[in-house]
Write a structure and sequence with these properties.
The protein is an alpha/beta fold. Helix content is 27%, strand content 24%. The longest helix is centred in the N-terminal third of the chain and has 22 residues, at 92-113. The radius of gyration is 30 Å and the shape is globular.
């Protein structure tokens, strides 16, 4: 840390406090024996308007910059590891220790240097491990859901919570309990999948562990933040029934069973009202109906989104005031410096003091409940002991293996034969360790190549990178190739019209042309649409010359080279990339003019060329050939393929990117048995499926990913992960879920079935399980009754393995349309060869309830079909439960 807060109160504050009457100095809020509500009331009465505001503002920050002090206090800060104190410089344990000391020093400032000494809440992301140096990285959230094991997920969450609290971090901005309703959404990997019941059970297991450890959880993003087309945070237009049946249950479970004490709102609007300002959601549903007593925070910079994105507010202060009145408590922004318009909403009287006190009271209550006033500091030695401990590494390995899903293995190619002598491992994802979204840097993460080398020390393992995940068709013209009058960059003239008419409103030098003006204005004085730009200057061709030059962009553009018009897309109405054939010799200089206009907003414009692209393409082809030769010389080839996804990376195509499909087909074409391992947190289409011998979905497995995958491939562990979402055959089937409501007619296409490639709950093992002896007792119950469903599962195969037993329920006749099938129970069990066990589920009112025509929760009399099996489509046993009418 570059600066350290003093350890004693300032003399000025001490002197001022001594001038106060004795009664004023009797601070009830500091009395740990007093009831929390009395402490809250006492502290609120002492606070100034500005001090109240700062309890409602959170952002990343520290005290490193003298300008970033918080004399009026703060809700809390997201505090990074200091420069030079990361895991690469000092190791995992020391990085954790230094981070705890850094947080302590910042906390000491708030406790000892601010007038009222209100501690701050250090907060951070902890989706599948704290996102800081030295913390253990566990499998990504979707991988945790794939375990179908709430006990294991609870154990992982306890480990993450222990590492988190040991540093002084007392709030996790996790978990994501949104449903992965569309496989194209880039943030599918962060979720627990598509099913409300599974998401609720996994979320509850995660949150209980954190809250028990004294770390506040923040389920997010409320609500339904994946819109049509799988696009992140797009406007949601859904019926109240749809929200209540699918989107609400995981959040409701978070409060009623997970004991979550915070909630994060979504960026999107819901039925025209920004989620951050939606009083129906934040007050009527969450507080009045569900009884939530914690505090609600916005997503980062979401409060002002009503102004710049949704266009429902004239300015940020009014947007903030509306949000606070609607039930938001804490504004989350990207920096401390962004606080001014939000403070203005308070100081200018846009927010009543009653609304302000209500929000501040909720924050203070949480701080008292956390014990921050009595124990504000962490133990750095405990941080060093816990973070990346051997016990947590072992748990990460177990979780990585448990999360792997064997999708297909028709000829028993897996597990790899004992005594294998020659193995080819192919693909950049075999050597890289990608941890997934919202991850820290990891601690000595183990690659699949290294995991296999450790598992098969006697085998000759040949690694080849293959062509990678990307294909480069063009690149942005770099800044060092552009100049004007001998100076770097191009002259940019910005016009307040779409036809370059009149005098430019702004003139400046732009180093390169690579702009995405999605939310922002391109220049002061312009709008986010209805403008045009002209760039002029000189382009210098690089070594190797240029064969194609062009523009990637939307709306209209024109490009001249040496006064010759080479591209004219002035009437463009969509987004594309166009490259014109040119012949620019190495080192030659050419005048260039690019004109661009934007009529509708969401601008994207890039000046691109093909310099170096051909060499890159040749290199990738060469690497495919090298991979094929390695496969030809091996007994088995393992191709590790991956996708690109994450926040701001929604996918229009679910195919493997780059030349990876070509790679798989080329390797499989050698005749060598070929296993494909997918490093992906969302579905992948597989037109090559019938050409390979096995497919394993590994996901993002954390620090121990390589060992976990190797454990499964070699048979040390029999795979038993299950898909927490549906894999479609093609994108045209999307959105596709296992539990739709019945179709009014057909549910297929002219050219494709409505069935998936792999269904929800699917996953294979290295053995076989037999299901028998289904019993439902009693077979008839009342609306408030309960029944047990039991069956026998026997391992009739040759290997010990886990099995995931799944129970699905269908309402045969209901007053409103119901899903064709709903998951209502699952158990992950372990059986040795020949062993059997009795598995029991309980069905009660919570499983049978529906929303009637008036959206009332009722249990209707009638017959319910009970089905048990190994997936939503591999159902082995069926029975009937009857709900009798009231007498």
């Amino acid at each position: 840390m570059t600066s350290t807060a003093p350890r004693t109160p300032s003399l000025l504050l001490l002197a001022l406090s001594l001038l106060l009457p004795t009664t004023a100095r009797a601070q009830l809020y500091r009395d740990a024996s007093a009831p929390v509500e009395e402490r809250v009331a006492d502290l609120l009465a002492r606070m100034t308007l500005e001090e109240k505001f700062w309890q409602l503002y959170m952002s990343p920050g520290s005290l490193d910059d003298p300008d970033d002090r918080y004399p009026a206090g703060a809700f809390g800060l997201q505090i990074e590891v200091a420069e030079g104190e990361g895991v690469e410089e000092v190791g995992a344990a020391e990085a954790a220790r230094l981070h705890a000391e850094r947080i302590n020093a910042i906390q000491r400032y708030f406790v000892e240097e601010t007038r009222l000494g209100i501690p701050m809440i250090a907060f951070d992301e902890a989706l599948h491990g704290l996102t800081r140096d030295g913390a253990t990285a566990f499998p990504q959230a979707l991988g945790l859901a794939a375990t179908f094991d709430t006990a294991l997920v609870g154990g992982v969450a306890r480990a993450i919570a222990a590492e988190t609290r040991s540093r002084g971090v007392r709030q996790a901005l996790s978990p994501v309990v949104n449903l992965a309703d569309d496989a194209r959404w880039g943030r599918v990997e962060e979720t627990y999948g598509e099913d409300p019941y599974l998401s609720a059970e996994m979320g509850v297991a995660f949150m209980r562990a954190f809250e028990t450890a004294g770390v506040i959880t923040t389920p997010k993003h409320f609500v339904a933040n994946v819109g049509e087309g799988g696009r992140d945070s797009n406007a949601i237009e859904r019926s109240e029934r749809r929200l209540r049946e699918r989107d609400f249950p995981p959040f409701r479970a978070a409060f009623e069973r997970g004991r979550a004490r915070s909630l994060m709102t979504a960026y999107n609007s819901v039925d025209g009202v920004p989620a951050t300002q939606n009083a129906w959601l934040l007050t009527e549903i969450v507080r009045e109906e569900w009884g939530f007593e914690g505090f609600v925070i916005s997503d980062a910079a979401a409060t002002g989104g009503a102004t710049v994105l949704h266009r429902t507010e004239p300015n940020t202060p009014t947007a903030a005031a509306h949000a606070w009145r609607s039930g938001l408590d804490v504004v989350f922004q990207s920096t401390r410096a962004q606080h001014r318009p939000y403070l203005a909403a308070v100081t200018d009287g846009l927010v009543s003091e009653a609304v302000l006190d209500r929000a501040v009271g909720r924050v203070l209550r949480a701080k008292f409940e956390l014990g921050l006033f009595e124990e504000p500091y962490a133990d750095p030695n405990e941080a060093a002991r816990l973070n990346a401990s051997p016990e947590h590494r072992a748990l990460a390995r177990r979780a990585a293996a448990a999360s792997a899903v064997l999708l297909t293995n028709p000829e028993g190619t897996l597990p790899l034969r004992s005594g294998i002598e020659r193995l080819a491992v192919i693909g950049v994802d075999a050597a890289e360790v990608r941890l997934g979204g919202y991850s820290g840097p990891g601690n000595d993460p183990v690659s699949i190549v290294d995991g296999l080398r450790a598992a098969l020390p006697a085998a000759a393992l040949t690694y080849r990178p293959g062509p990678g995940r990307e294909v480069t068709e063009h690149v942005v013209v770099p800044a060092d190739a552009l100049s004007r009058g001998g100076e770097p960059g191009l002259r940019g003239e910005y016009f307040d019209a779409i036809d370059l008419s009149g005098a430019p409103l702004v003139e400046r030098t732009d180093a390169s042309i690579d702009f995405r003006w999605t939310f922002n204005r391109p220049a002061p004085g312009l709008r986010t649409d209805w403008y045009s730009v002209r760039w002029t200057g000189t382009l210098t061709a690089p070594e190797g010359g240029v064969r194609r030059l062009g523009v990637e962009g939307n709306d209209g553009y024109r490009l001249w080279v040496d006064d010759a018009l080479v591209l004219d897309r002035w009437e463009e109405t969509s987004y594309d990339t166009r490259l014109a054939p040119v012949d620019l010799a190495p080192g030659s200089r050419h005048s260039i003019r690019l004109e661009y206009r934007e009529t509708n907003g969401g601008a994207r414009v890039r000046l691109v060329w093909d310099a170096g692209v051909e060499r890159d393409r040749e290199l990738r082809r060469t690497r495919i050939a090298e991979a094929v030769r390695a496969a030809e010389e091996a007994e088995v080839a393992v191709v590790v393929a991956g996708i690109e996804e994450g926040e701001f990376q929604d996918r229009a195509s679910l195919a493997l990117p780059g030349l990876q499909e070509e790679l798989i087909r080329a390797v499989a074409g050698t005749g060598t048995p070929t296993v494909v391992v997918l490093v992906a947190g969302s579905p992948v289409t597989m037109p090559w499926l019938d050409e390979v011998d096995a497919v394993l979905l590994a996901g993002y497995g954390g620090d121990e990913a390589g060992h976990g995958v190797a454990d499964v491939l070699t048979g040390r562990v029999s795979p038993a992960g299950r898909l927490p979402l549906t894999f479609p055959i093609a994108e045209g089937q999307l959105p596709l879920r296992y539990n739709p409501k019945p179709s009014g007619r057909a549910d297929y296409y002219r050219d494709l079935t409505g069935l998936p490639l792999f269904p929800f709950g699917h996953g294979l093992t290295y053995t076989r399980f037999e299901y028998s002896g289904l019993e439902i007792s009693p077979e008839t119950i009342g609306a408030e009754g309960a029944a047990t469903v039991s069956l026998t599962v026997r391992n009739v195969g040759p290997r010990a393995s886990d099995e995931v037993v799944q129970l699905y329920l269908s309402d045969e006749v209901a007053s409103v349309a119901r899903p064709t099938s709903e998951l209502r129970g699952f158990r992950r069990i372990h059986l040795a060869p020949g062993a059997s066990t009795r598995v029991t589920f309980t069905l009660d009112r919570s499983d049978l309830v529906l929303l009637d025509e008036e959206l009332r929760e009722v249990v209707e009399p009638g017959r319910f079909r009970v089905a048990v099996g190994a997936s939503s489509r591999d159902l082995r046993l069926r029975g009937t439960l009857v709900v009798a009418p009231p007498r």
